[in-house]
Amino acid sequence: MLAVARKTQIKDILLEKKSVTVVELSKRFSVTEETIRKDLQQLENEGFLSRTYGGAFIQDGALNDIDLTLRETAYVESKEAIADKCAELIHHGDSVFLDASTTATFLAKRIRNMRLTIVTNSLMAIDQLKDSETVHLVGIGGIYSAKSKAFNGRAAVQGLKEYFFDMTFMSCRSLSMEHGITDSNEDIALIRQTLLKNSASVYVIADKSKFDKTSFVHICDYENIHGIISDFRFTPEWKSFLERKRVRIFACSV
Predict the structure, then answer these.
(1) What is the DSSP string of 165-183?
(2) Is the pTM higher than 0.90?
(3) Which end of the chain is more exposed for a tag (fewer CB within 10 A), N or C?
């Protein structure tokens, strides 16, 4: 198969699945992984996709639920900067909820030596905090999803209703001025909607790739949150919009 035809098929696969790995493409097209990496590099240069360790993804699409193994290595510098800014807001003695996002996992690592009560449905966050001598760690049960490494479903929602938090740090798939804060997964969105009712302060943690997009499920409007922590370069329009909604901006530089 010619390289041009192969790249066209890779585009079609990405438009359908939203994310791919180098290994699966190498097997599918019977070429070396190095050949696939070169294809992905060229497609990234064209602005079609974003590469990460082991694969690539695109941000477009209402049902875009990017594979966790790719999300873990995407925008790492952004997530580290966001985690640092989040940590500045947390004080010893706080009760904190961390959702099942890769950015929240970076935050868990930052605050593992603080005296906190941390509740989470994320197996990745639990893994970061399980050996901490200062964190009172509470894991929310539910149906385990290997795709998101998280516990979701009715039992998780019911468990959440028993707790109240000084602050919640939750991510999302997309943010737009027109459609609010949205997600691609209904179960994950339901967890985040439940958190809004049980938290004194709710902070959305989102890297710059998530802005000016809309996903499948509406989580909430901006009136339901207190702040956005991001490395996004907020335009005057965004700043004015969030000021009207009384949402604080916590900007991170990368």
Answers:
(1) EEEEEE--SEEETTTEEEE
(2) no
(3) N
